[in-house]
Write a structure and sequence with these properties.
Blueprint: H1 3-35
Length: 36
């Protein structure tokens, strides 16, 4: 494993997880609004 690749991949993975988490929350809010 290359050290620089790991240092570059860590923030990218963190951003991707954050985006997925944000999208899931947005979808839940939209579903709740549609039901309510």
């Amino acid at each position: 494993m290359d050290e620089s690749l790991y240092l570059l991949g860590a923030p990218v993975a963190f951003i991707l997880v954050g985006l997925i988490f944000f999208v899931v929350i947005e979808l839940r809010i939209k579903m709740l609004k549609c039901r309510g």
